[in-house]
Design goal:
single chain, 9 helices, about 280 residues
């Protein structure tokens, strides 16, 4: 569809020019050396029907928070449809959009992990590229993050727009995961999450990363709260997650996360008034 090739021209030429100038200044910057307030990180794989609208919605949300410097990190995970052209066309019209490209499909988790590594924001937002997450929920989640003093806000999808089978499998997976990992969340599979950059230090490169972000963060001593969020119908494309994604792969990874969570120690344990640094004097 031609109207998905780029976000609609809602922003002024002055704003676009200012964004391009800022991006030029940041072009050689490392992920942590630029004063970016919010990074929205979105992996895409063959999402030509939703990509343009989703970027439009994210930009509109960021326009409403204009006092905060922000970026969108869009990762094209080896798409073979028109997704790459849509993302690049969008980046050409608004410099807040950065496109990272995998020339071969690596999978959602590697795309997300790399995007988080490259993101420059002090706050990170993750969501799916299929358009089922609603970016309009982001401001409320950021507000809850600040008001609760939490490290991570995890979305809980209400009125899910998925098939009965997918909803059943998701509920079953959430129940088993909650019992085994005790991560304190009811819908870990919801991609819409908001968290402080420090949470990324808790993550490990695992193929089912989305589902285990809360468990890994909790094991590192992070505080997690939940927020009800919208869930929408797909407007095109197809889901990339079959029975293998919901069953044996997460089961294997869950055992690994269970072991890791019980063997690691929270870094907060190292903040102890009884631990002190002793000066060593050499040569006397």
């Amino acid at each position: 569809m031609a109207d998905t090739l780029a976000p609609s021209p809602k922003r002024s030429a002055t704003r676009a020019s200012a964004d391009r100038d800022a991006a030029a200044d940041d072009s050689r910057a490392t992920p942590t050396s630029v004063n970016i307030g919010i990074s929205i990180v979105i992996p895409f794989h063959n999402e030509q029907d939703s990509a343009g609208r989703l970027l439009d919605e994210c930009l509109s949300v960021l326009d409403g928070m204009s006092a905060i410097r922000a970026e969108i990190v869009a990762i094209d995970d080896g798409s073979v449809d028109n997704t790459a052209a849509i993302l690049n066309a969008a980046a050409a019209t608004d410099a807040r959009i950065r496109v990272l490209t995998f020339h071969h499909n690596r999978g959602q988790a590697p795309a997300l992990y790399y995007g988080l590594e490259q993101a420059r924001g002090s706050l990170l937002v993750t969501l799916d590229g299929d358009g089922q997450n609603n970016p309009a929920d982001i401001p409320a989640m950021i507000e809850q993050l600040h008001s609760s003093g939490a490290d991570l806000v995890s979305g809980v999808r209400v009125r899910r727009r998925d098939s009965l089978l997918r909803r059943f499998m998701s509920r079953l997976a959430n129940r088993v995961r909650g019992i085994l990992l005790n991560d304190g969340v009811t819908d870990s599979g919801c991609a819409l999450k908001v968290f402080h950059r420090s949470v990324t230090e808790s993550l490990i490169p695992i193929q089912t990363l989305y589902s285990f972000i809360p468990a890994l963060a909790r094991a590192a001593g992070k505080k997690i709260v939940e927020c009800p969020v919208d869930h929408r119908q797909r407007i095109g494309g197809r889901t990339h997650y079959g029975l293998s994604v919901f069953l044996w792969r997460p089961a294997l990874d869950m055992l690994g996360v269970w072991w890791f969570s019980r063997r690691r120690f929270a870094e907060a344990q190292l903040i102890d008034p009884e631990i002190s640094e002793v000066a060593v004097i050499v040569g006397e």
